[in-house]
Amino acid sequence: MNRRPPQWVIVLALVPAVVLGAPLFALLWRLPWSDLGGALSSEAATSALGLSLTTSLAATVLCIIFGLPLAWMLSTGTGVATRVIRALCLLPIVLPPVVGGVALLLSFGRRGVIGQWLADVGIQLSFSTAGVVLAQSFVALPFFVLSVEAALRQLDVEFAEVAHVHGASPIRVFVSITLPSIAPAVAAGAILAWARALGEFGATVTFAGSLQGTTQTLPLAVYDLLERDPAEAVVLSAVLVVVAVTVLVLLRDRWFGVLRAEAPR
Amino acid sequence: MSGLASWVSVDFRRGELELDVDIADSPFAALIGPNGVGKTSALRCLAGLEATAVVRWATAPPQRIGYLPQRVMLYPAMSLADNIASSLRFVGADRKSAMSRAHELLEMVDIVDLAARRPHEVSGGQRQRAGLARAIAATPDLLLLDEPFSAIDASSRSAVRARIIEHIATSGARCIFATHDPADITAAGAETVSVSPMS
Amino acid sequence: MVSVGAGNVLGACATVDDSTFDVLAASSFTDVAEPLEALLEAEFGIDVRFSFGSSGSFREQINQGAPADVVITADTATMTRLEAAGLVEPSVALVRNELIIVTADSAAGRSVEALADLVDAHSEGDGDGDGDSSRDVIVVVCTSSAPCGAATDEMLAATGIELSPASREPNVRATLTKVLLGEADAAIVYRSDAVAHPELRAVEIGTDNVSVIGRAAVVLDDDSDNGADNALTAGEVLEVLTGERAAGLFAEAGFAAP
Questions:
Q1: Is pLDDT of A250 > 80?
Q2: What is the ipTM of this complex?
Q3: Which CATH number fits domain B1-63+141-164+172-199: 2.40.50.100, 3.40.50.300, 3.40.50.2000, 3.15.10.40?
Q4: Domain match, C39 and C121 both
Q5: Share of chain A above pLDDT 90, in %
Q6: Residue C7 structural domain
Q7: Contacts of A116 (CB under 8 A, 6+ apart)
C-alpha cells in the first residue's frame, strides 16, 4: 500500500510551504552579497551575534537543568496541582512576548515582587545580560518541558519497575534508564528551546533593555538597524535565519520518535 | 489467605487473589493456573510493586530480588551486556566486575556474540535469555520469573533451562515462577502452587 | 486626463474606508493626538484617525501604502528623508520639542539635579551585583536611530559629557516607560513626555539643550486607497494644525512654537 497522501493533499500542503518559504527566499534574494563581509564584521553585528549565541546557550542549559525535574514531576503527577503547574509552564507560549517581558519586570524588576529583595542584595536583573538569559529561559522552557514530558508519559512504566525491584533508587532509575531512553526527545526539546531563545525579542527588549554588548541580541540589533541601516538589518536577519534553519534541519525525524518499549511476544 | 510453601503469605488487599499450597521444601515454586487468574499479579506483589499488597515473610524477607516480567523489559538504551550488568551496578558493584560477570552469564545463556547489541536488535528469545541473566546476575536470594522460558526456541530451551535451574539451585536462592509449560515444573522439581481467584 | 480617470477608478475600488482621514504621527505626539483629533473632527465633520509609529519606519510604511493622508514627524531629518523620496509635498514646521530629564522616585533618581549628575563613576547599569547599586544612577536614553536619541547624542557631544546608559530603548515611549516602572532612575526624553507625566520629577537640561522640530506634510497620492476627497481636505487639515487653536493644544502638551 502506498503511504503517500493523494495528490490534492500534497498540493494543499505546498501552500503553507510556499508561505513559509517565500519570506526566507526573499530575504536571501535581497541580501547585499557584495557588502556581506563588511556588514557581518561590524561591531554591532559581531557583538550581537556573540551575545545571542552565549545567552541562548545559557538559557538552553538552564531549561535543561530545571526542565528535566519539572517534566519528571509533571509526567508522574495526576492531581489538580499537576494540572495547574503544567498550565503555568505552558503560559509563556500563549503570552505575547512583550507581555511576558512586562510580567518579568513586575516580578523581577527593581520594584518587582521578587526583584526588590534581589535589589537589596545588590542584584539587578533588568538591563543585564543575566536578565536576557532569564527572559529567554522564560519563553523557551515550555518547549523543552512539553517535549520531554510527552516522551516520559509515552515511556513504559514497567522499565522503571524492573529497575526498582533490582535495587535502583528513583534517581538512579531516572539517570540510568529513563533519560537514555528519552534522549532523542531531550535533544529535540533542547534544540527547540534554543531556537526559541535565539529568536526572542519582545520579552528581552522589555525586561532587559537594549544595549550593544550587554543586552542587544541579534533580534534587537536587527530592530534597531531597521531604521538606521536597512541593508545591514537584512544581513543580520539572514544570519539569524540561516543559523536557525541549519540547526532545525539537523533535527532529524528519528529524534521526534521515542524508543518504544519492547513489544510483547 | 494461605501461605506459599513455608516462606511467605500474601495478603492482597483487593481481595482478588488466593494461593493454595502444598508444603515441601523445594527452592522452586511454580505458579500455575489459567490466563488472567493473577499469576502475574502475585509475582508483582512479591516483588513489592503493588502498593496495596502486604507481603508477610515467614522466614527472613529477601535482601535482594531478581525479577523477570512477562514482557522481559530490557532497558532499551543499553546493550544486552549493560542490561545484565545493571543489576550489579544498582547494588554498588564497580563497572569492571559487573561487566565480567555479565559476560560469564552471556556465555551461560549462549548469547555472547550479541553482547553489544541493543534489545530492539535481537529476537524475542534472545531478549528473554538476557532478561534471565539480568535477573540472576546480582545473586539475589529471591527470584521472581514470569513465564521465563516461553520465548526461547524449543530446541535450545531445555539446555538453557537446565543451566539456569542449576545456577539458581547452587546459589541457594528461592525461586517462584509462573508457567504454562509442565516441562518447566518437572525440570525444576518445583512445588506447584495453583492460583485461583477469590469467588 | 486618462490618469486622473484611472486614479478615480482605483479610488472607487479601494477596499479601505475612504471617509476616514488618516494621520500618521510620531509616537511623541500620542498624548496630544486626542485633543487634536477632536479639534479636526469638529472643524471638518469627518472621521479623523491618528496612528503612531517610529519615525524611522515612516518611509517604508508610506512606501508600502500604509494609510496616511498627513504625516507628522518628530524631527526634521525624518521629514527630509520623506521629501527626498518624493513621498510628501513640501512640509511645514509644526512644533519644537526640547529634551528634558525625568527621574524616578528612588534614592538615585532624587539625587539628580542636573545633566552632569547622570554621569556617576559607577553608572554603567551593570546588573550583576558588583558595586553598590543604590548609589548608581541608572539612565536610559533613546537609540541613535530615533529622533530623540539622535538629539540626545547631539547634545551630549556638544557638552562633552560621556554617558553610559543602561539601555538605548527603541523609541521615546519605551524609554519613558522604564522610568515609570521604576526600572531606571532617570531618562532623557522630550518635554512633551514630561508634561504628560506630571508624576515624574523633571530636571531641566539648561543652556546646552537641543530641540527637535516636528514637521507635518501632506502625503502624496500615488494610487493609494486615499481617494480624491482626502486630497482636498489634507491641505486644509495642515492649515488647522498650524493654526492658533492647535498651537494652544500643543503648548498645553509641552510643545513650543517652531
A1: no
A2: 0.90
A3: 3.40.50.300
A4: no
A5: 63
A6: 2-96+212-252
A7: A110
The span from the CA of B14 to the CA of A18, in Å, is 60
Query: Higher confidence at residue C160 or residue A58?
Result: A58
Whole-prediction pTM value?
A: 0.81
What is the C-alpha to C-alpha distance for residues B13 and B122, in angstroms, rounded to an integer? 39
All residues of chain C having their beta carbon less than 8 Å from the beta carbon of residue A208 are 167
Q: Assign residue B139 a region: left if phi > 0, alpha if psi is -120 to 50, beta otherwise? A: left
State whether C40 and C106 are in the same domain: no
- Residue C98 C-alpha, separation from nearest chain A C-alpha, in angstroms: 22
CB contacts < 8 Å between A and C, how many? 87
Q: Closest by alpha carbon to C219, among C28, C51, C98, C97?
A: C51
pLDDT in tens, A103-131: 999 999 988 899 989 988 888 898 999 99
For A110-176, the DSSP string reads TTSTTHHHHHHTT---TTSHHHHHHHHHHHHHHHHHHHHHHHHHHS-HHHHHHHHHTT--HHHHIII
Answer whether A123 sits within 8 Å of C168, measured CB to CB. Answer: no
Query: What is the mean predicted confidence (pLDDT) over A197-226?
Result: 92
**Residue C200 within a domain:** yes
**Pair C112, C153 in one domain:** yes
Cβ count within 10 A of residue C34? 11
Q: Report the pLDDT value the prediction gives residue B9, as an integer from 0 to 100.
A: 60
CB C253 within 8 A of CB C196: yes
Return d(Cα A99, Cα A91) in angstroms, integer. 11
C-side interface with A, Cβ within 8 Å? 54-57, 60, 106, 125-133, 138, 140, 143-146, 165-170, 174, 178, 181-184
| Residue A126 backbone phi and psi in degrees, to 5 | -70, 150
User: What is d(CA A223, CA A244) in angstroms, rounded to the nearest whole number?
Assistant: 18
Are C220 and C59 a contacting pair, CB within 8 Å?
no
Say which residue, C47 or B128, is predicted with more confidence. B128
Q: Do C169 and A210 touch (CB under 8 A)?
A: yes
Instruction: Note whether residue C257 is domain-resident.
Output: no
Q: Distance of CA A47 to CAs A43, A44, B129, C163, C230, Å? A: 6, 5, 59, 20, 47
Enumerate domains of chain A plus CATH numbers. 36-256 (1.10.3720.10)
Pick the residue of B70, B78, B80, B86 with the most A CBs within 10 A to test the interface with A by mutation: B86
Neighbouring chains to C with at least 3 Cβ pairs closer than 8 Å: A
Each domain of chain B, given as residue ranges in start order, spans 1-63+141-164+172-199, 75-140
Residue C258 lies in a domain: no
- Between CA B120 and CA A117 the distance in angstroms is 53
Regarding whether C203 and C219 lie in a shared domain, the answer is no
Higher pLDDT, B170 or C16: B170
Q: What pLDDT is stored for residue C120 in this prediction?
A: 67
Asked if the structure places residue C105 within a domain, the reply is yes
pLDDT in tens, chain B (199 residues): 334 555 556 655 554 455 544 445 678 988 888 777 778 888 998 898 987 777 777 677 888 999 999 999 999 999 999 999 999 999 999 999 999 999 999 999 999 999 999 999 999 999 999 999 999 999 998 999 999 999 999 999 999 999 999 999 999 888 999 998 999 999 998 888 877 665 4
Given a cut of 80, whether residue A74 has pLDDT beyond it is yes
On whether both C247 and C170 belong to a single domain, the answer is no
Same domain, C144 and C83: no
Enter the C-alpha cell of residue A231: 541593508
Verify that C76 and C177 share a domain, yes or no.
no
In whole angstroms, what is the distance from residue A210 CA to residue A127 CA?
A: 8
Read off the pLDDT of residues C137-193 as tens digits, 9 standing for 90 and up: 999 999 998 889 999 999 999 988 899 999 999 888 889 999 998 899 999 999 999
**Structural domains of chain C, count:** 2
